[in-house]
Every structure is written in C-alpha cells, then in structure tokens.
Amino acid sequence: MHAAHWRQDFAASWVVFLVALPLCVGIAVASGVPAELGLITGIVGGLVTGLLPGSSLQVSGPAAGLTVLVFEATRDHGLSVLGAVVLATGLFQLLLGALGWGRWFRAISVSVVEGMLTGIGLVLIAGQLYSMAGAKAPDSGPDKIIGLPGMLADAVVSTSARASLLLGAATIAVLVLWQRLPARVRAVPGPLAAVAMATLVSLALGLPVAEVRVDGLLAAVQPPALADLGRLVEPGVIGTVLAFTLIASAESLFSAAAVDRMHHGPRTHYNRELMAQGAGNTVCGLLGALPMTAVIVRSSANVRAGARTKLSRVLHGVWLLLFAALLPSALTLIPLPALAAVLVHAGFKLIPARQVLGLWRERRGEVLILAVTAVSIVMVSMFEGVLIGLGLAVAKAAWEASQVRLEVTDKGAGPVQVRLLGNATFLRLPKLLESLEALPQDRPVELDLSGLHHLDHACRTALQAWAQRHSATGTDPVRIT
Question: How far is CA 469 from the centre of its chain?
Fold first, then answer.
C-alpha cells in the first residue's frame, strides 16, 4: 500500500461500500438466510480477503452467482449446515491454491462458464419475480418458470401484490435508466439509488409491502456445531461442497482476469488469489455466513472509482462493519420488492447475450454446450448442470482432437500404400475401419502409422484385427510400419 494513493483509495472505498450494501443484503434475502449473513460475508471479504495477496483491486463478498446454490443447500440440508459447507469450501480452496491448481480453473470451457451464468441468471430472475410480487416461489426451476403466468395473474387482483410488483418494476426502471444519466449523477451507485428511491416511495405512500427483517449482527453469527461438521461425510453435502468450490473458484478467477484487463497495475497471482478466497470462505464458514467470491460488479466499481491499492477494498469492509454495528435498524426500512428487483436486474446481467451472438456466428458447437448447461441448471440443479456442461465440453474437445486422415496410394500394381495421419482414437474408429475395409481384398497393403501423433489401445487392437482379416483371404500379410 502506498501512502501517495490513500485519497483515491479512500474515495473508492465509499463507492464500493455503497454498491456492496444493497447487494449484500439482497443476496442474503434471496438465498433464504438472514440479511446479516450477507453483511458478514461482505465484511470478511474486505477485512480478510482484502488484506491478502492475489489480486490487488478486485473486491470479494456474497455473489448473485451463488444465490441459487445457497438456496438449494439450505433448503436441502438446513441453515445450520451452511457454515460447515462454506468452511469445507474454504479449506478446499486453500489446499487447491497451495497445490498450484489455481491456473487450472482458467482452463474451464468459456461456454460452460457462460452457460452456468445463464442458468443462474434465469433461475434468479424467475425466483425473484415471485419476491417482487410478495409471493412464495416454488422450489424447483421448472416450477418457478411454469408458475410465473399464474403468479402474475394473481398479483393483478391483489392490492398488496400489485403494489409490491409495481414498486419492484419501478426499481428496475431506475436501475436501467441510471446508466443514461450524466456522469455527475452516476457518481451515486445505481443499486443504492434505486433502493433508496424505492424506500422513500414506500414510506411516503405507506405501501403494504414486506420489509427487511434484522435481528442484529451478533445474533446472526452461528458457528457450525460438531453435528453439522459430521454431516460433511454425507454424499449430498459433499456434492454441495464441490459445487461451491468449483463455482466460487471459477467465478473469482474469471473475475480476476476481467479486472486485470481494466487497469495497468500489478497482475493477479491466481494461486495466491485462490488461497485468499479460501481464507475468506474459511472465516465465513466459522461464522456461519454466506460463501464469498470475487464479484465483478463491485470490482469494476472499485477500478472505475480510481482505486490504486488494496486499501480501498479493506476500507469498504470497515464501512460495512460500522454500518451493521451502528445502523442496523436502517435496514428494516428497505422494502423487499426493491431488493428482489436489484437481483432481477443482476440476473439479466448474468446472461451473456452479446457473447452468445458472437459464439453463434463463429462456433455454434460452443452455443450448444452453453445452452445445454443453462437448461440443465434450470431443469435439474446447479451442480448437475455444471457437470453436464463440463462433460459435454470434454466430449466435444475429444471429438475435435481425434482427427485422423487416411491417405491411399494405389499405383495399380504392387501393394496398396495406406498412411494414417493425426490422432487415432476410438471416437473415429467406425469411419476408419469403414475406409480400410473398402480397400481391395486381393491386394497386399502397406499400412504406415508414422504420421500418427496418438494411437489409443482401442484403435491399435482394431487395426491388428483388421490386418488379420485382410490377410486371411490368402493375400500377403498386411505390413504395418
């Protein structure tokens, strides 16, 4: 940290704090946990992860991308197990960073990541539309989407639901239009402005809408008990830990790569950043709070506000702590439809429409992986959807890598010369055997394998079997080189 930059960092810390405050609360409420847990994760992201090396300017805290996963975890395993899951996630990230595996998260297919964000965005939008209308959302993704028309129809005839929905719609309108206002006005972060306006309108008109419930920061801290830690051996809980680790780590490191493109300062050290995220999640787990990731919205706000060192993100954690300790009652004035609207807007921003259009023009196979990943997340669950997407990406890569070409030279007399080039794997075996079996049965064959970069066991065995069959007709034995 350089003293010469403290003024820029101090000013940037307030911008990040004002962006983070409504998001921390909104993400917690959307995740089905007390609002204070989102603030605790934001505080830890500033005071713990913010102090550690890795990426100097990106900001960590609760992320909209983990909302669906946290909601599913608390629904399936209970809120008391959340701390144990986040603790295990943090320890796992520390181990992966220490082993130098941070760079491998950058190798995850971009189409899988974009599909993951799209799926999360769709489920987040569908779920928060119910909250905007003051209704309870169904548990599964398909039920959320199928039930939307009925929910909207019911909201129209209910005075309280209609008021709630209109307040949420107005909040989204402010968020969308805020970016078109003069730069001097946009110095106030859009989410804060939208929530503040919705709060003032709700208070002034006395709207019958639900508001945030706050019980106090210390009351929300619930360290995992031994019984909760013991549940980490359950298959379902293990799957949740792996999903948290994969998604939180990938989102953090992809965010780091994006933030590095926004400034000219020191580059991210990915293994150290993964360990910093692990340390933060370990502390969050011990406090029973939400999991954290590096968040691109807060990070980009930090860079654009002129931050130069990690001091800005540390100070934003200090401001969150002071607010939660001194002014918690202020949160009870915030209408829930406004927070739901902020997350609906965040859900739309998770859907990479421009990237999808670019991929469609260049590589339509990647769009298929993206779409399958997103649909699987909506229809099944987060963890299974990501695994399906990763499996499809690996299969596509294997198929594209296993290109093999057959060159046949037939001079009309003497042996037929056949040369194989590329990578011969079982994926191309049917076409390869079909071409070899089309060769003249009454002519000797010279099979040259020197042009192959890779020959797997299945292909080698099949080629030997074909050679025996070809020679069994009385033709000279196939000569393989």
Answer: 52
Low-confidence ranges of the chain (pLDDT < 50): 1
Q: What is the pLDDT of residues 465-474, one digit of tens each?
A: 888 887 776 6
State the burial class of residue 204 (Cβ atoms within 10 Å of its Cβ: 0-12, 13-18, 19+): exposed
Cα(177)–Cα(266) distance, integer angstroms: 34
The distance in angstroms from the start CA to the end CA of the chain is 64
Burial group, residue 107, by CB count within 10 angstroms (0-12, 13-18, 19+): exposed
Instruction: Count CB-CB contacts under 10 A for residue 111.
Output: 26
Determine the pLDDT at residue 3.
54
Identify the three-state secondary structure at position 170: helix
Q: How far apart are CA 374 and CA 129, in angstroms?
A: 19
**Which tens digits make up the pLDDT trace of 383-430?**
778 788 888 888 887 777 777 778 888 777 778 888 887 777 777 778
Residue bearing tokens 């959302």: 137
pTM of the model: 0.74
Which residue from 353, 345, 397 is spatially nearest to 371, judged by alpha carbons? 353
| Nearest by Cα to 87 from 101, 73, 107 | 73
The bridge status of strand 416-424 relative to strand 404-409 is antiparallel
User: At the top level of CATH, which class does the domain 404-480 belong to?
Assistant: alpha beta
The answer to whether the CB of 224 falls within 8 A of the CB of 77 is no
- Pure H helices in 327-402: 336-350, 353-362, 364-379, 382-401
- Three-state DSSP at 290 gives coil
- What does DSSP say about strands 445-455 and 416-424: parallel, antiparallel, or unpaired? parallel
Q: What radius of gyration, in Å, describes the C-alpha atoms of the chain?
A: 28
List the one residue out of 420, 386, 297, 285 whose CA is nearest residue 18: 297
Predicted local distance difference test score (pLDDT) of residue 317: 93
DSSP sequence for 34-101: -HHHHHHHHHHHHHTGGGSSS-SS-EEE--GGGHHHHHHHHHHH-HHHHHHHHHHHHHHHHHHHHTT-
Q: Which residues contact 386 (CB under 8 A, 6 or more apart)?
A: 112, 116, 243, 246, 247, 373, 377
Question: DSSP code of 269?
Answer: -
C-alpha 393/C-alpha 249 separation (Å) is 19
Q: What is the pLDDT of residue 269?
A: 84
- SS3 of 144, please? helix
Ranges of each domain in the chain? 3-396, 404-480
Sheet hosting strand 404-409, strand order edge to edge? 404-409, 416-424, 445-455, 479-480
- Put residue 474 in one of left, alpha, beta given phi > 0 → left and psi -120 to 50 → alpha: left
Closest listed residue to residue 218, CA positions, set 80, 23, 36, 24: 36
Collect all residues with Cβ–Cβ distance below 8 Å to 8 and sequence separation of at least 6: 305, 306, 307, 308, 312
- pLDDT of amino acid 42: 94
The pLDDT value given to residue 1: 46
Q: Using the 8-state DSSP alphabet, how is residue 263 labeled?
A: -
